[in-house]
Amino acid sequence: QVQLVESGGGLVQPGESLRLSCAASGIIFSRYAMGWYRQAPGKQRELVARIYVGGRTNYADSVKGRFTISRDNSKNTAYLQMNSLKPEDTAVYYCTVGASDDYWGQGTQVTVSS
Questions:
Q1: Dist CA 71 CA 54 (whole Å)
Q2: Cβ–Cβ under 8 Å, residues 107 and 36
Q3: pLDDT tens digits, residue range 39-84?
Q4: 66 within 8 A of 19, measured Cβ to Cβ
Q5: Would you call 66 helix, strand, or coil by DSSP?
Q6: CA triplet 54, 60, 66: central angle to 5 degrees?
Q7: pLDDT per residue over 82-104, tens digit each?
Q8: Rounded distance, CA 18 to CA 3, Å?
Q9: In 67-84, which positions are buried (b, 16+ CB within 10 angstroms) versus exposed (e)?
């Protein structure tokens, strides 16, 4: 079965960085788009970034220039490099498989606070 395991979340101060990882199994990883979503308390889940099979990426306006999505097909892993973190980036971050978000991970908490 398909499994997605996120890691790398934590508590950081504003301006600091984190790198999230999403390890996938049960799929031919290189054939799928990968996405990162987030959900803050009391807010709707939002798409943060997506990377397609050919490497094309797109980002939410709120993270452009600060976050970078990437993938390593040899490791079946997607990454989200988050720089210049802000308190409003605090959320649970989820990775997904497929352009239609067919599968979801369990989420990892990111908290940005001084």
A1: 11
A2: no
A3: 999 999 999 999 999 899 999 999 999 999 999 999 999 999 999 9
A4: no
A5: coil
A6: 90
A7: 999 999 999 999 999 988 888 99
A8: 22
A9: bbbebeeeebbbbbebee
